[in-house]
Each structure stands twice: as structure tokens, then as C-alpha cells.
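May I ask for an example protein's residues together with how it folds?

___
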Amino acid sequence: MNCDVADLSLAAGGKKRILWADNDMPVLAEIRKRFAKSKPLKGKNISACLHVTAGTANLMRTLKAAVANAVLCGSNPLSTQDDVAASLVKDFKIPVFAVCGENRSTYYKHINAAIDHKPVITFDDGADLVNELHTRRKKEGHRIIASMEETTTGVIRLKALANAGKLKFPVISVNDAASKHLFDNRYGTGQSTVDGIIRATDFLLAGTKVVVAGYGWCGRGLAMRARGMGAIVIVTEIDPIKALEAAMDGFEVMSMAQAAKVGGLFVTLTGNKNVIRAEHFRAMKDRAVVANSGHFNVEIDIPALKKISKKINRDVRNYTDEYIMQNNRRIYLLADGRLINLAAAEGHPASVMDMSFATQALEAEYVIKKQGGLTVAVHDVPIEIEQRVCRLKLKSMSIGIDKLTPEQVDYLASSGEGT
């Protein structure tokens, strides 16, 4: 099998993690069971550029159950779980191209290996694979029926392509599905970001001033979790509506320039560039901790931090580098500014990824059925798929909900009744 993983001898441990995660992914398991019978993706080449985690492994198993020819490459150099990658290759016979800690050259070599697979459907987390199909490998884009995008940063990039009239094939914004961002982004990112920070620092959140940059769904999730652990949470925003929402949710809201002077822990979750810059580093207190939970490591201006530091001590703890300023203040950067929840921890809990990956799997089936019928644009997930995923999740949690009575259906469809 053509693949590139760190060490196939790690497979036994990876298989345990994959099957453990599967216990918390009942929706995806139900879809996999159906796919094994109906084979909706039979013979279709699929390339996925996703974080190589135990949860992702169960998505790949589901695609294989649908009789797709699926391959996987990593969507971040530090997020690959090498034992999971090994198990996918050895135990589940799914080609993987991903090694934790790979350099930029190897990272793009792996993406190109996924494109060499000649996919008709792609899965992306950050749009790096799709971007390659729009730049260096644009001649390969003609065969793509559709692509699924998993994260906010990727959707931003794809909408920019669409707005510029450069998008070459339909894309489904799985990230914007309510069944994804309301749960995965909020509860998954909230919990896993805290997990990564604590693993890297052994930091006590109670009583700490935690600065959350960005109050989108990921920022909301982190702010909620940090407050629940006793932190004093400060939110920074550029959007007046989100800033007002954060204030009414009971958080302190201020500019990053103000927050830099008082914060103890800073976390960026914006999808934008250079949110924390040199002027903010200069204002920070001794032993301030800086981390990123956005997809790319550009949210923190690391080149500026290096430039204003007189010394850098690498790995003072796992995933923690110490930057010493000219006045001997220390700033700690976690995971080299990469996704802290995946670089220093294990990413989102499988139970929340169950919904996101179930949506991904059902979307693959949907685009095959719609082949040739989707316009070249960034599309929302159909509401029927969203509701199906949520109904299955509720069922797995033994939760029942009400149904409209015929009278209620008629009432909602009419305008005659009133005061």
C-alpha cells in the first residue's frame, strides 16, 4: 500500500484508540452500518485532508464501508496521532500520508499524494487541499464533483475564492451547519482548548485573567469553559454585535491593547492574522502565556515575538517555549502557535465529532446523488441532513422530543387566527 506514516509498529495502540472513540460515535456507526448495505460511494475516489485523530479514523472507516477508495492526509503538521495513522494503514487498509511534526515540504508532499489519488470528492479542514487544486494542481480540479469544508478558516478562504469568481467546483460548508458549529466549535473547541493548555502548562485557571480573542462559536465555547473553571474572562472583538453579546453574556470586553496589560493567559480563536502583535507582547506581564486555537499559526505574530526577544528557551515544558524580553520579562508560547487542542492534546472529544463527521459522511452521499446539479459556489448543508443527524444523536442519548399535532401544523401554515 502506498502510504507514509511514522511507524507501523504503533498500530496496536492506535487501534485501541480508534475503537474507544467509536464507542462515543453512535451516529457515525449507524450511518456506517447503512452504508455497508447501500454502498453509496462505490468505486469513488475520495481524498481527505483532515486532522488524523481517532475520531477521523472512524469517518474514514465509514467511507470505506460505503465502498469508496479513500485516502487521508493530515491538515496540520502537529495534529497527526501517529499511532492512529499506523492503525488505519495496518488494520483498516486505508492509505494515510501524515507524520506528526512533519516539515512544510513533507506536509505539501502528503497533500499532493492525496491529489495523485485522483479524487472526485475531497474533504478538507482548512482548505489546504482545495487551495492546492486552485493553484499548483489546478488542472486536476476538473474531476471534482464537490468538496466538504470542516472549519471556519477554510470557509473564509473558500468564500474569498467564490467572491473573486475563482472557485472551480462546488463546496459544502459543513462548518456552517448548525449541527457542527453549535456543538463541535462551541463545546468541542471549548473543552479541548482548555485540555491542551492545561497539559502544556499545568496552569490553574481559577482566578486567572484569561483573554479570549474572538467571540465566534469557538471563542464562546472557550469563554464558557474558562469561566466554569473559575477564570476571570476577558473577550476582545472587532465585531460590535459579538462584542455586545459577550458583554451581555457577562464577560469583560475590551481592546487587545487594554487586555494585554492585565491578562495572564491569551488564546486566539479568530481565523485572522496577527491578532496578538509586538505592541501587545511589550505590554504583557511577566510569565504571560500565549496560545492559539485557530486553524493556522498566523494569529499570533511569532516573527515579531522572536524579533523583540533577547533569548528563546525551547521546550521548558512539552509544547512550551520561553521568550525572554529585553527587560527580562518572560512570555510563554504554546505549541509554536499551532492548534493547542490538537498539538498538545487529542482534539475534540469523539462524542461531539460524531455529529460533524456524520454530516460529512451524509454530504458525500448527497453530492453523489446531486452530481452535476450543484452550482459552483459555497453551499450550506441541507436542513434535512442537519435534522437527520440531530435526530440520530438524540436517539443515541435516549432523548425524545415532541411532534407537531395536525392542529399545530395547520395553525403555523395559516394567518387567520389572531387576537
